[in-house]
Specification:
By secondary structure, this protein is α+β, with helices and mostly antiparallel strands. It contains 3 helices and 5 strands; from the N terminus they run αβαββαββ.
């Protein structure tokens, strides 16, 4: 079973409507921790926050969510704060290995590379 399928079975309520799970491998522990927190919040506070997608977008982690209007706004605010923190931390973690890294904007041939890399995994710029 691949990583995404394992997550879907472990967090089936939170990922019931998910259409994309494709974060870089270095950010997977961050995603797993966030999902554990959301699952706990949903269970304890009877909220219904659902994840639609987890992916790399514009060089950082992007998580798209939906929550039921009946959810407590203060609890939903806590969950959205945790999501924002995870998205921010992804810009400080190497997307290849999870080590501390720096957000980089590099040119490679005719494309632009946006991402977070440690010194070991930093892509080479090409003119």
């Amino acid at each position: 079973m691949d990583w995404a399928s394992t997550l879907i079975s472990q967090f089936e309520d939170e990922l019931e409507d998910v259409y994309e799970i494709n974060p870089p491998i270095g950010w997977r522990p961050l995603v797993e921790s966030l999902l554990e927190y959301i699952k706990w919040q949903n269970k304890i506070h009877k909220t219904r926050v659902k994840i639609y997608s987890i992916e790399k977008r514009h060089g950082g982690l992007r998580i798209v969510v939906h929550h039921s209007p009946a959810s407590s706004s203060s609890i939903s605010g806590e969950i959205f704060g945790a999501i924002h923190l995870a998205e921010t931390l992804s810009c400080k973690m190497c997307e290849q290995c999870g080590a501390p890294g720096n957000f980089e904007k590099l040119r490679s041939a005719d494309s632009l590379i946006l991402g977070t890399y440690c010194n070991e995994h930093l892509p080479q710029e090409k003119d």
